[in-house]
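wait is this the right file?? whatever heres the structure
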């Protein structure tokens, strides 16, 4: 290698080392629609000379074809990549851009301003260190400005740049800027920000974006880029305890067993003691394995495989942590949630909760209140609509380990997933464990379910009759119980109308109340099965999710779904109680089949054609099934 090549290599190595040593700032742009977020970032990239030649050529061509600046450069097109975004002139998805200056590296997330895409904004803010909140100088502080500011605060972002944009459209008027600043600071007093830096800008014209603007001599603060390059980002992660969610148990052969994942917080060294807090099993780190060789230490963000000195039972979803700084372990906690689904949240419905690498069933046991983002008022409510924010208690089907979100976001945040569609319906941030769970323990008893059922000469089970009002399910269930009684079997019939006279007399017929109605009945049926009874449950139970929840309370093979499939027109013809007539007249709201949906079973064990089969024949069919399956 000649001297010239050596010099070039040394120069490249020096440059790469310099880049490695630069710290990284993740920031997000947010605010109301049309406040200029995409243009803001596009201008920042343009003026910083951070675009390649082909990007510049493509931007120039696209600006002439679909731009909004009469043939001039439309900087927003650098971020609005979806066809729908370009057609509508709005941001829908979250767009990420990486860029670097001589002083710092950056990852910026451009998030949508429309209320219907608030969930996308939450995604972008979840990993940000700083938020740039844009305000259109012509419009001032809007509702969506407040909503995004509240979410930014909720997600733990402490530093904010308040960019009052489009100052060129208000003649760079200082009074306009001061009025907006005063309004925003008054609102922000209720939020948990440590630092708010106000900057008047025109993203389109470039004023105060890279350097000071001659058009606003009254402003003597930093430009946007100057502030982003110098703002201090807290290194609080260094002091956080070690957390390692296990993603995969790595067992390539009989001689190696490791636990793979990414360090969520803190650091770990070879020889350090660790514990799996849910089980209490502990050991020490034997090796820290990576593709490039073993490490002596691993810290936040590093993907590694840990091997332990002892064989302990650990699986995907467990968390390894420092023995002297353990997370909470509980099956109940309070959390703030952002609802992300068009259909409203229904307390008591069972969802899947995913925290880190683990997934478990969970339900919102109580919704305490929702937050009015305009006033920060706590508003009583029974449900949450799309993009609403509420504080609630969650109950899980097993204890998990977690930290308060304010302490360690990586192990204090979760999502809720619809069990049937697998769609994410909510994002949540844990406040604290509910200590009431520590006071409740399962009491061991000597006489168990099998002994009770054997004494009665039967198998304890649930026959869950579902169908529209007037389908005949209660009549059939009653006949089945009579036949079982004649066979000296021990039964109990839970009927929808009867239960609403007592146990569920406080519930109405909204979707939320129907969910709670079935939850209570499912728990009651479970107790009766534990008593060794054949339990007949006759409820409309219109939602698949709650019928699945009731099934999940029992052991495999103890739950038989009986779908009395009677066409709506036949149910209306029968209309013994006159309910359909009233529902059609609008006198009864939320009536299943008319003004409220009924979700047909997809895999019922027994299907009765309620329009053609007589109740007597239907009862015989069910008894025959019970005999065939060995229940009686």
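ok assuming it is, sequence goes like this
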């Amino acid at each position: 290698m000649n001297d010239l090549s050596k010099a070039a290599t040394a120069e490249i190595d020096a440059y790469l080392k310099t880049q490695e040593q630069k710290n990284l700032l993740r920031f997000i742009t947010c605010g109301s629609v049309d406040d200029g977020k995409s243009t803001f970032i596009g201008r920042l990239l343009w003026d910083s000379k951070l675009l390649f030649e082909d990007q510049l050529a493509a931007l120039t061509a696209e600006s002439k074809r679909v731009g909004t600046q009469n043939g001039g450069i439309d900087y927003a097109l650098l971020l609005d990549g979806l066809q729908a975004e370009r057609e509508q002139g709005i941001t829908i998805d979250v767009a990420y851009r990486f860029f670097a200056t001589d002083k710092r590296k950056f990852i910026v997330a451009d998030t949508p301003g429309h209320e219907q895409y608030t969930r996308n904004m939450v995604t972008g803010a979840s990993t940000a260190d700083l938020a740039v909140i844009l305000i259109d100088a012509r419009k001032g502080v809007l509702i969506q400005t407040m909503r995004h500011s509240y979410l930014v605060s909720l997600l733990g972002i402490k530093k904010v740049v308040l960019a009052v944009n489009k100052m060129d459209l208000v003649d760079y008027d200082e009074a306009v800027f001061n009025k907006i600043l005063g309004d925003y600071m008054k609102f922000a007093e209720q939020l948990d920000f440590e630092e708010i830096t106000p900057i008047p800008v025109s993203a389109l014209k470039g004023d105060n974006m890279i350097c000071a603007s001659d058009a606003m001599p009254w402003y003597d603060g930093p430009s946007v880029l100057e502030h982003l390059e110098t703002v201090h980002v807290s290194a609080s992660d260094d002091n956080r305890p070690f957390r390692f969610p296990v993603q995969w148990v790595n067992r390539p052969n009989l001689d190696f067993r490791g636990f793979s994942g990414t360090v969520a917080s803190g650091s770990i060294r070879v020889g350090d003691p660790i514990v799996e807090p849910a089980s209490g099993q502990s050991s020490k780190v034997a090796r820290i394995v990576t593709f490039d060789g073993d490490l002596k230490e691993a810290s936040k963000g590093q993907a590694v495989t840990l091997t332990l000195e002892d064989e302990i039972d650990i699986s995907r979803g467990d968390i390894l942590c420092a023995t002297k700084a353990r997370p909470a372990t509980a099956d109940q906690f309070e959390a703030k949630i952002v609802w992300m689904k068009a259909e409203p949240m229904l307390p008591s419905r069972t969802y899947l909760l995913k925290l880190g690498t683990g997934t478990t069933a969970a339900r919102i046991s109580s919704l305490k209140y929702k937050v009015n983002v305009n006033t920060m008022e706590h508003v009583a409510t029974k449900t949450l609509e799309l993009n609403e924010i509420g504080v609630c208690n969650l109950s899980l089907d097993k204890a998990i380990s977690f930290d308060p979100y304010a302490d360690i976001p990586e192990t204090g945040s979760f999502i809720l997933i619809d069990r049937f569609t697998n769609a994410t319906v909510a994002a949540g941030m844990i406040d604290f464990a509910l200590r009431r769970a520590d006071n409740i323990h399962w009491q061991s008893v000597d006489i168990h379910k099998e002994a009770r059922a054997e004494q009665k000469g039967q198998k304890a089970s649930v026959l869950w009759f579902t169908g529209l009002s007037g389908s005949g399910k209660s009549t059939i269930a009653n006949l089945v119980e009579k036949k079982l009684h004649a066979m000296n079997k021990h039964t109990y019939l839970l009927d929808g109308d009867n239960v609403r006279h007592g146990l569920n007399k406080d519930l109405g017929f909204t979707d939320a109340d129907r969910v709670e109605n079935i939850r209570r009945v499912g728990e009651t049926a479970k107790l009766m099965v534990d008593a060794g009874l054949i339990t007949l449950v006759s409820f409309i139970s219109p939602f698949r999710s709650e019928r699945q929840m009731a099934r999940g309370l029992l052991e495999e093979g103890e739950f038989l779904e009986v779908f009395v499939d009677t066409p709506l027109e036949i149910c209306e013809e029968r209309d013994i109680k006159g309910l359909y007539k009233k529902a059609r007249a609008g006198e009864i709201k939320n009536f299943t089949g008319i003004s409220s949906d009924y979700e047909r079973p997809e895999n019922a064990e027994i299907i009765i054609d309620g329009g053609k089969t007589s109740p007597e024949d239907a009862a015989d069919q069910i008894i025959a099934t019970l005999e065939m399956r060995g229940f009686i």
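The first strand starts at residue 24 and ends at 31. so i think its the right one actually
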